[in-house]
Amino acid sequence: MKVPFVDLKSQYLEIKNDIDTAIENVINETAFIGGNYVKIFKEDFQNAYGVKHCIPVANGTDAIYIVLKMLGIGEGDEVITSANSWISTSETISQTGAKPVFVDIDPIYYTIDPSKIEDKITPRTKAIIPVHLYGQMADITSIEAICKSYNLYLIEDCAQSHFSSLNGIKAGLTGIASTFSFYPGKNLGAYGDAGCILTNNSELAEKMTMFSNHGALTKHNHLIEGINSRLDGLQAAILSVKLPYLHDWTEARIANAKKYYEGLIGIGDLQLPKVRPSSKHTYHLYVIKTKNRDALKVFLESHGVETAIHYPVALPLMPAYSRFGADAQEYPVGSDHVNKILSLPMYPELSDEQMNYIIKLIRSFYADLAC
Ligand SMILES: *Cc1c(COP(=O)(O)O)cnc(C)c1O
């Protein structure tokens, strides 16, 4: 049996008619840039979150950059973020001219460790960007309290946490702004690059809208210099088709996670993902931990099961950040984490047969180890 790590094709086939019609409509109306479909998705998404403004942009990386720039963050400033994330979170900080300052993750939930944040705050610190990693929210309550007491902006990176929540509050509704990616493999994925920003701050929303469209709110009236970061009409139309399904898809991910928990509990040194109390984990990724990671990965691969590692190197230890001269001891949790994690296939369309196969394989791997 073959189990791919992601399977975007089977989801497309499920909704093929709607998607094909949406694409045809955009082309018939040549609504490629701007236009009605972008407006409709913008409203769909902001209504789904009950937030005042959704600013559609070209991708989730630009989303972070645009928020930082329009908050006036740049040269001489520092922005705190998690040591373990996708590089978008930190590269955008550098792009503004500010310095990314990394904080280790907590050993249980793998998100930024609030107890280690205050040590890293200086008079130059302007903002904190927690990442709601793998589909589970960071400890937003503690982070928000720190932001309040030091007067820092809170920006939530929600690229992996569409409709995740903690204590009933959705990811993306606590900070001054939050950023989403609709990269095809994300829980809500377009058929190309796409992203957006949510905020309740109308003044900031207007600046961000302007900046993402060459600094203009109306054609040829460039109030500032901006960038070209627009959601295109095709992606918007596709996202509007997919959004109503997201609730059920998320529930299917949660049901699949439950099957993994039941099938994999109590095996060897295997650590299964832990869920915070009162947290809705949406399982963008199902990340297990074991000291036998490399051998398990090879074993699964040799039996047709694709896995992945998110992410193999902690950000401060990447060559891109060699200028900071960080070493692994500064990030003891995050630098150990990367050597043990393995992301198993996780998507709504995984069949029982596929899941049972993966579980059986992992069980047999550990049975052989024990001999
Ligand atoms: C995917 C992702 C991004 C960037 O999104 P793109 O749309 O690929 O630019 C940012 N942060 C995190 C944590 C991500 O997983």
Give an overview in words.
- It is a single chain.
- This protein has 371 residues and is α/β, with parallel strands linked by helices.
- It folds into two domains: 8-104 and 111-244, 3-Layer(aba) Sandwich (Aspartate Aminotransferase, domain 2); 246-370, Aspartate Aminotransferase, domain 1, CATH 3.90.1150.
- Helix content is 38%, strand content 13%.
- The protein has helices spanning 8-14, 16-28, 36-49, 60-70, 88-95, 140-150, 202-212, 233-242, 246-264, 293-302, 332-340, 352-370; strands spanning 53-57, 78-82, 99-103, 125-129, 153-157, 165-166, 169-170, 177-181, 195-199, 279-280, 286-289, 341-344.
- The strands form three sheets. It has a seven-stranded mixed beta sheet with strand order 1-9-8-5-4-2-3, sandwiched between helices.
- A hairpin with a 2-residue loop joins strand 6 and strand 7.
- Helix 2 (16-28) runs antiparallel to helix 8 (233-242), helix 3 packs parallel to helix 8 (233-242) and helix 4 (60-70) runs parallel beside helix 5 (88-95).
- The site of pyridoxal-5'-phosphate (PLP) has 15 residues, from helix 4 and helix 5.
